Amino acid sequence: MRDVAIVGAGMIPFGELFDQGIKDMVSRAFGATLGSVDKGMRADEIEAAWFSEVQSVDGFPAGLLADACGLTDIPVTRVENACATGNDAIRNALYAVGGGYVDVALVLGADKVRDTASSATFWDWMSTNRDSAWDLPLGLISPASFALHVARYMHEFGATREHLARVAVKNHRNGARNPYAHLRFEVTMEQVLAAPMVVEPFGLLDCVPQSDGAAAVIIAGKDVVDRYTDRPVWVRGVGTGMDRVMHAHKADLSYFAATRKAAQRAFGMAGVGPGDIDVAEVHDCFSGVEMMTYEDLGFCDRGEAPRLLEKEETSIGGRIPVNPSGGLKSKGHPPGATGLAQCTELFEQLRGEAVNQVDGARWALAHNVGGPTAVSAVTILEGPRG
Amino acid sequence: MEISALATYRPSWVDASGRRTLGPDEDVATLAVSAGRLLGDRLADVDRVVLVTRRPDALLGTTPEVVLEGLGLDAATPFVEQVGGAPATVETLLAANPGTLVLAVDPLAPAASAAALVQAGSLVLDRPATARHSVPVRTVPLTGAGDRVYDDPRLLREQGWKRAAAEVVKEGMHPVTVAGVPAKVAGSLVRGALPGIPENEAAAPLLLIARAATDGQDVRLVAVENGHAVAVDVTLAGSVPVLTAERATHPAPATWEPASAAEIPASPAAYGRAFEAKVGFKAGVCSCGERHYPPRAQCVACGALDAQHLVPLPRSASVYSAVTVRAPVPGKTVPYALAVVDVDGTDVRALVHITDDPPGRAPIGARGRLVLRRIAVRAGVPDYGYAFQPEEQHA
Ligand SMILES: [Zn+2]
Asked: Is the pLDDT of residue A40 over 90?
């Protein structure tokens, strides 16, 4: 398998994009991504595309992307893997480019969640990813599915709501400076703790907003990378991990087994370890998930994640800055776009061009988990100075 | 006609008037099971079930299937749904053959349910008498609308209850106890009658028989409703087991209605496949011994396909993790608590609601029991399963 690099990455600002349909969003994200290629790229140089979209709107997903981006002469495939769709779509494309079947591939992620009334479609969404007879009628909504993990973790390791709030405060501080973020404001610990409860232990400010958005990367095989940039960002490792779907069947709710498996595969492929990572974009759909994930990714020992937050080691300037983009928490979480937006941020970080730049970052990691907590995807990137 | 065992159940919630009222996850079917299951191993003797209530959940629904599965009885057990109030319960008892389980359910506040196992035993009902006059002061429409009440309480009392009761009391040695009327009326309807109880529909006669058995007090039971009265002597030849389930009460909110209405999608086919395991709380046990809840085609331990049979799980459990949902989930009564519980003596865990306490009171490690509840109403059809009832904290 040959080396593969990201040669372009772009996104549109996330938010409640009532003035854009998903086709508009997809077209504009594609344009931004093509425009980010240092030496330029024509659309017809792309040989295959993968569309990362969780919830289909406005029709047949793969056809929608091909049509909206003028890519009807190449194969387009839709990937759906719950909230891990974005980084899993990159893995799919990497196999094709790394295997030599195509030289240049587009991975574009988008989701449009604000075209439908949230209450009217609530159960339609739920019924696509819950067991109809057993889990659906219980009302295991997404924050509850993660809260069951976080509550167990807090019980075992003595973490508090203040620790969770530190994640929200940190990520909002980063996101407030990111022009692509949905929620561009800072929050205080007091505001997070006083926000209305959604699912204990998560208040409203521990939770992601409902965002529309689109983001993309273009990857190329080593043989052709020079045509497009002298500063490629290498995709060194990809990994997807699974877990039992029902919460009753997960061996231990105090960690995310899917994340551990995905990380192990990605690190193994990249030939580096957690200690080598300089900056990470971690799936913080709910504040406590980021905290727990520090351990599953190996950024600290078991039970030490709250200490990492207390010492601000995951803040910009800390030992391992996490979510310099603002994370899902502040930037927003259109599920299909999320993984691609993480890699867009890391593409800029590793090229030294990010808004909240981590000085000298060489290795980076992107992480998603979802499904409910039954799938994770991890991507490990190395910067051009490597 | 003899009774060998009795059971009574009252729900854990009280309304603004201090009357026991159903939780958001209870109905006639769950109330029937909550009382009936108290009889435990004695249910092995049941070969026929009669459920008496004035207010069935539906004219055609799933009550018989749910009650039979919830009680662990054979699905082919004859099951009669008897519409009626207090007199109907007494008539049902009198007509029952040995082996009959009589369940009586009052779903409206004051809510209660009770069960009697008709079988050779120490509690004897005899010397029946009946009176019937047309006094339609209270009528109950079919549509689920509120009761129609003709505004003349004295007419109901004098021409209905009192006249009919007088005709059936008869001379005898036993003090009289009256079922089917409010507690404050019961003691005065017949001269010298014992104090009444809040419940006044189908469950009331069994609750009074249970009280007599507990107190060791023979009584003449008079059950009335409008102009209808049925009376029997209740005589104790020895002690009769009376099993009761009554927890400390919590104030019920003004309404259990969801914050916003939405229809939870239903698949009767999927529910039907899950039914026996879900309503009977049974695991799929593989030939290798591995237990699966829910049951599944392939064993997670040995990989065998289609090698599982259903076996009831223990009903005691402890909380492994729990959260309280406070966001306004469409179609759900909020707040509600979700828990993953460890089922005692197994490696089985279950994702369940926490019931019968205000949400948030059962922390990780709390112990309790799994009880049949109506988990949701989906497309108008009730969906049943098990919920975790925390043990009461005895201070
Ligand atoms: Zn097996």
From this structure: yes
